[in-house]
């Protein structure tokens, strides 16, 4: 079975997204350090501050450096006969099989940062649940969308 690989731009997008999320924690840490430094009513022991900073650095290493390539390695999709198969998960791996006839809606979502990378998120909705394919290049997502619609039309006739 040949599954589709994640594009390198998607990995770069995941890293940038993780960096933005980590920046929120950086602002919180800086606020705690400044409050601790300049105000007497807010006293945090030195070892707690060092632990928080250490955990923050570990978080950056994991979420920006390690997680995106692993996510790219294990998140896949494929259209096999009349089924869409999604493989996802880093630690707990899942294989989701969706019969194409059960698909009710296919949506493309794009955010402002993803737009800069020309990346969209594909949402496949059935009557019981919504599944997400990993972020894809826009051309690839449109191709998947049309391929699914064609196969549904072929099976209806």
Gap from first CA to last CA: 27 Å
Radius of gyration: 21 Å
Mean pLDDT value? 87
Query: Low-confidence parts lasting 5 or more residues at pLDDT below 50?
Result: none
Order of helices and strands: HHEEEEHEEEH
Largest sheet, if any?
Answer: 4 strands, antiparallel
The helix count comes to 4
Percent of residues in helices: 40-55%
Q: Tell me the number of strands.
A: 7
Helix and strand content put the structural class at alpha+beta
Instruction: Name the shape in a single word.
Output: elongated
Strand content: 15-25%
Tag the structure with descriptive keywords.
single chain, elongated, alpha+beta, four-stranded antiparallel sheet, 157 residues
How are the SSEs ordered, and which strands pair?
Blueprint lengths: L7 H31 L7 H29 L1 E5 L2 E6 L5 E6 L5 E5 L2 H6 L1 E7 L4 E3 L3 E2 H19 L1
Antiparallel strand pairs: 1-2, 2-3, 4-5, 5-6, 5-7
Helix pairs in contact: 1-2
Explain what you see:
The chain is α+β, with helices and mostly antiparallel strands. 54% of the residues lie in helices and 22% in strands. The protein contains four helices and seven strands; from the N terminus they run ααββββαβββα. The chain has helices spanning 8-38, 46-74, 112-117, 138-156, and strands spanning 76-80, 83-88, 94-99, 105-109, 119-125, 130-132, 136-137. Strands 4, 5, 6 and 7 form a four-stranded antiparallel β-sheet that branches. It has a three-stranded antiparallel β-sheet with strand order 1-2-3. Helix 1 runs antiparallel to helix 2. The longest helix has 31 residues, at 8-38. The model has no long low-confidence stretch (mean pLDDT 87).
């Amino acid at each position: 079975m040949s599954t589709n690989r994640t594009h390198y731009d998607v990995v770069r997008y995941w890293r940038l997204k993780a960096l933005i999320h980590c920046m929120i924690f950086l602002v919180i840490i800086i606020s705690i350090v400044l409050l601790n430094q300049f105000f007497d009513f807010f006293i945090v022991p030195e070892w707690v501050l060092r632990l928080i900073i250490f955990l923050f650095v570990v978080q950056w290493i994991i979420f920006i450096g390690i997680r995106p390539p692993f996510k790219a390695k294990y998140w896949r999709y494929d259209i096999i006969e009349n089924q869409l198969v999604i493989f996802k998960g880093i630690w707990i791996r899942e294989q989701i099989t969706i019969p194409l006839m059960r698909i009710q809606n296919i949506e493309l979502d794009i955010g402002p940062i993803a737009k800069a990378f020309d990346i969209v998120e594909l949402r496949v909705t059935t009557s019981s649940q919504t599944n997400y394919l990993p972020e894809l290049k826009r051309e690839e997502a449109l191709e998947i969308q049309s391929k699914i619609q064609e196969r549904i039309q072929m099976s209806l006739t």
